[in-house]
């Protein structure tokens, strides 16, 4: 058996889908004999884990499985090894950095809020 990392992609659709398109890209650790087996197993996981629920406005929210676009073999597991890399090109870099900082603070169990107060 070998270890693989597979990217499983879902489209998030709320109501009739009249919103900014959203996709959930998940990295999954897969144990399989071959890369093809890993891809098949990741697709099976993707299909099995599709789901839908009603939100507070009683609109249907769906996680619709799209596909498995990438599978990488992990030849050897080492501390600190890179598993995935993606280059972001946000429209507002400052908002993106602030979002990353907030997510990091939440991960650490802390809440950091910075207030920029300008004199009146």
Please state how the strands of the largest beta sheet are arranged side by side.
2-1-4-3
What overall geometry do the principal axes of the alpha carbons give? globular
**How many runs of DSSP E, i.e. beta strands?**
4
Q: What's the total helix number?
A: 2
Main sheet record: 4 strands, antiparallel
Return Rg in Å.
19 Å
Strand content: 35-45%
Structural class designation: alpha+beta
The succession of helices and strands, N to C, reads EEHEEH
Q: Helix amount, in percent?
A: 10-25%
CA distance, first residue to last residue: 66 Å
- In terms of per-residue confidence, which ranges show pLDDT below 50 for 5 or more consecutive residues? 110-120
What is the mean predicted local confidence, pLDDT? 86
Protein name: DUF4288 domain-containing protein
Organism: Chitinophaga arvensicola
Pfam family, one: DUF4288
Keywords for this entry:
single chain; about 120 residues; alpha+beta; 4-stranded antiparallel sheet; 2 helices; 4 strands; about 25% helix; disordered C terminus
Q: What does this protein structure show overall?
A:
- The protein has 120 residues and is α+β, with helices and mostly antiparallel strands.
- It has a domain at 2-74.
- Helix content is 24%, strand content 36%.
- The chain contains 2 helices and 4 strands, in the order ββαββα.
- It has a 4-stranded antiparallel beta sheet.
- The chain is globular and about 45 Å long.
Topology of helices and strands:
Blueprint: E1 2-14, E2 22-32, H1 35-48, E3 51-54, E4 60-74, H2 93-107
């Amino acid at each position: 058996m070998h270890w693989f990392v597979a990217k499983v992609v879902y489209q998030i659709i709320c109501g009739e889908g009249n919103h900014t398109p959203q996709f959930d890209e998940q990295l999954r650790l897969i144990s399989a004999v071959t890369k093809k087996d890993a891809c098949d197993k990741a697709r099976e996981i993707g299909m099995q884990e599709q789901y839908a629920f009603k939100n507070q406005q009683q609109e249907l929210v769906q996680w619709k499985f799209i596909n498995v676009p990438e599978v990488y073999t992990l030849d050897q597991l080492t501390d600190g090894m890179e598993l995935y890399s993606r280059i972001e090109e946000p429209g507002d870099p400052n908002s993106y950095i602030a979002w990353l900082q907030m997510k990091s603070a939440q991960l650490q169990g802390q809440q950091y809020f910075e207030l920029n107060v300008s004199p009146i």
